[in-house]
Amino acid sequence: MKKRDMTRDYMAAARTLSEALPYLQRFNDAIVVVKFGGNAMGDDDAMASFARDIVLLRQVGVNPVVVHGGGPMINDLLDKLGIQSEFIDGKRVTDAATVEVVEMVLSGLVNKRIVQAINAQGGKAVGLSGKDASLMVCEPADAKFGFVGEPVEVNPAVVHNLFEDDMIPVIAPVGVGRKGETFNVNGDTAAGAIAAALKADRLLLLTNVAGVKNAAGELVTELKAAEVEEMTRAGVISGGMIPKTETALQAVRGGVRACTIVDGRVAHAVLLELFTEHGAGSMIRA
């Protein structure tokens, strides 16, 4: 590379850092909950990049919380074990055998892999599930789906204690019932409930689409709750985007300042969303 080109690159990097200063100040000591999807975990480079971004958040004064999924890994192990799944309306029924596999994969394999990735980048991550310290108490979402839970009580004291020790919580979406049952909880739902209980400044839902699009197919970068509801009624928001926007609405109504549906395929999407003017997805406010 020519010296002039290198100088131009350095100047661009310095300008980016300078422009980020107001956002760095804005999010100092803020709580940011990030939902990290299972589909993004299969690539070691993507995992390492995500881990670096989370460590950077902690280094600049943000309190990040990672809530993860792991659907593809659960499916793989169920297949290997020969456990057949029943589906109702396209949703998996989580019976006693399946929920054991869910807990094994989410609280074990996936959770520890993310913890290891963050620690490898210089962070201090601690893995836990919604069962630890009764962080996420659940009731059955619908009896016909078995051990699929809906959070009814979130006790975030353990998360605040980890913040005080400069730790990064990594939470598996496995909840506990009133009678000690184990519940499988949708990752987005768990992230929204935890973010609301923490009164987080931001909830970031990383997904594999650009965000919410209008009727013309254009990305909408900021929406109010009423606009989301109207677009849903009109069928503009449909399919897999509906549960994500529903999670966003529940979160902001529960005390989260804003929720952004972020395109996790974009490199450093979390940093772009928090520390640049244009962001990296669709932000929903109450």
TrEMBL record:
Binding residue positions for substrate: G70, G71, R92, N184
Transition state stabilizer, annotated site positions: K35, K244
UniProt keyword list: Amino-acid biosynthesis, Arginine biosynthesis, ATP-binding, Cytoplasm, Kinase, Nucleotide-binding, Transferase
E.C. number: 2.7.2.8
UniProt catalytic activity: N-acetyl-L-glutamate + ATP = N-acetyl-L-glutamyl 5-phosphate + ADP
InterPro entries (UniProt xref): AceGlu_kinase-like_sf (IPR036393), AcgluKinase_fam (IPR004662), ArgB (IPR037528), Asp/Glu/Uridylate_kinase (IPR001048), Glu/AcGlu_kinase (IPR001057), NAGK-C (IPR041727)
A Pfam cross-reference name: AA_kinase
ATP-binding in keyword set: yes
Compartments reported by the entry: Cytoplasm
HAMAP family xrefs: ArgB (MF_00082)
Protein name per Swiss-Prot or TrEMBL: Acetylglutamate kinase
